[in-house]
Amino acid sequence: MFKPDREQGFAKAALDLMGECQVLSTPENFELFYAFSAGENPAITQVMGAVIAATKPFTPELLQDLRMRCLSGARPALAMEAVGSNMSAKIDDVLTKLETASRETVDYKNTLSAATGELGSDRSPTDQRKLVDGLIAATREMEQRTKSLEDELQASPTQVTELRDKLDNVRKESLTDPLTNIANHKAFDDAVKAAEDAVAHGEEACLLLCDIDFFKKFNDTWGHQTGDQVLRLVASCLSENTKGRDTAARYGGEEFAVLLRGTSLEAATRVAGQIRQTVETKKLVKKSTGDVLCTITISIGVSQFSPGEPTEAVISRADACLYGAKHNGRNLVIHQNDARMAALETSAA
Questions:
Q1: What does the alpha-carbon distance between residue 166 and residue 56 come to, in Å, rounded to a whole number?
Q2: Helix %, strand %, coil % for the chain, to 5?
Q3: How far apart are CA 180 and CA 136, in angstroms?
Q4: Do 194 and 330 reside in the same domain of the chain?
Q5: pTM exceeds 0.70, yes or no
Q6: What is the pLDDT of residues 224-233, one digit of tens each?
Q7: Which of 1, 155, 215, 301 shows the greatest Cβ crowding within 10 Å of its Cβ?
Q8: Among 17, 50, 71, where does a domain finish?
Q9: How far is Cα 301 from Cα 207, in angstroms, rounded to an integer?
Q10: Domain residues for 31?
Q11: CB within 8 A of 299, min separation 6: which ones?
């Protein structure tokens, strides 16, 4: 669940492990080792665990490969850089063409000015004819250059539009969890900021924090690939039960968050119940025999935003309700006004 002291523990463990493995303390490397310490990325856990167990070095090439394959932000960042470079190159190309056209226009103007002066001088018909022929040739050359520039500039908007489309795709990818194909933590943070503004103007909004029950058991018993399937199934259930301005996101590991806009606490609790029931219908089946291995369940905590209240308080309240759902037997939904929360607070006191 969402505990600051736990996150600090992961950070310390990541830094300590980086020192033990003699890995340079860069933000990029820290992100990898934090993910390993938190156990939130099965692929990183498997690969890095094998390297550590074999006491092999973490080479820059290995670290880069891990970032590209296993971290959702690495590939979009690289793609964003490539699109940005292409966009910059296209702009530079257009500017260069315009500068060239400007110089050619000045040269043509100078040619006309010089010819105007010479036409008035005492020249023979033959010289006058040569001068006129030169003007005609310069004019035709200028027309060709202008036509060429026009064609190139007309093609530029299409190329820029293609780059913009690629940029939009990269932005979408940077906000999507690659495993579950729903919103990632960054997208959730952006949605929460928008919800805060809406709540300040009188709109209702609620937060669901969801945690898969006994998720570690799935990984330990049937492996990380099965665990990944469970995560995708739960993400699919969240998507099925959210719509419009709602945001279903993978918060980290086996934890999910759902932001419900324009929704009262009562309605949000009903949505949470629908999600819980949908997840409960999902079962792990052994493909070779068709045997049901187990049923998937989740626990959900529900809290409501209040105008001017820090988001941390809303998350903390939902997290407490999630803990209450776990404490009361799991596979439950508990909201902030649930009587079971009062009983839990009394027993804790």
A1: 38
A2: 65, 10, 20
A3: 67
A4: yes
A5: no
A6: 778 888 899 9
A7: 301
A8: 71
A9: 8
A10: 4-71
A11: 210, 211, 213, 322, 325, 326, 330, 331, 332, 333
Is 201 strand, coil or helix?
Answer: coil
Query: How many helices (H) does the chain have, and how many strands (E)?
Result: 12, 7
User: Which distant-in-sequence residues (6+ apart) come within 8 Å of 262 by Cβ?
Assistant: 198, 203, 204, 205, 245
| CA 332 vs CA 109, 142, 273, 276: distances in Å | 82, 78, 8, 7
What is the spatial distance between Cα 264 and Cα 249, in angstroms, rounded to a whole number? 20
pLDDT in the model for residue 78: 46
Residue pLDDT, tens place only, 206-255 = 999 999 999 888 878 887 778 888 899 999 999 999 988 899 999 877 89
Instruction: Name which of 162, 187, 163 is nearest 174 in CA terms.
Output: 187
Active site residue 254: yes
| pLDDT of res. 71 | 63
Q: 227 exposed, middle or buried (CB, 10 Å; 0-12, 13-18, 19+)?
A: buried
Query: Are both 50 and 89 inside the same structural domain?
Result: no
Give the model's pLDDT for residue 349: 43
Alpha-carbon dihedral angle through residues 28, 33, 39, 41, given to the nearest 10 degrees: 30
For residue 180, tell me if it sits in a domain.
no
Rounded Cα distance, 303 and 338, in Å: 10
User: Does 155 share its domain with 247?
Assistant: no
In our burial notation (b when 16+ CB lie closer than 10 A, e otherwise), range 117-129 reads: eeeeeeeeeeeee
Q: Which of residues 44, 71, 98 is at a domain's end?
A: 71
Is residue 179 one of the residues assigned to a domain?
A: no
Tell me, what DSSP letter sits at residue 299?
E
Q: How many structural domains comprise the chain?
A: 3
Whether residues 22 and 81 share a domain: the answer is no
DSSP 157-169: HHHHHHHHHHHHH
Q: Note whether 312 and 228 are same-domain residues.
A: yes
The catalytic residue among 28, 81, 143, 254 is 254
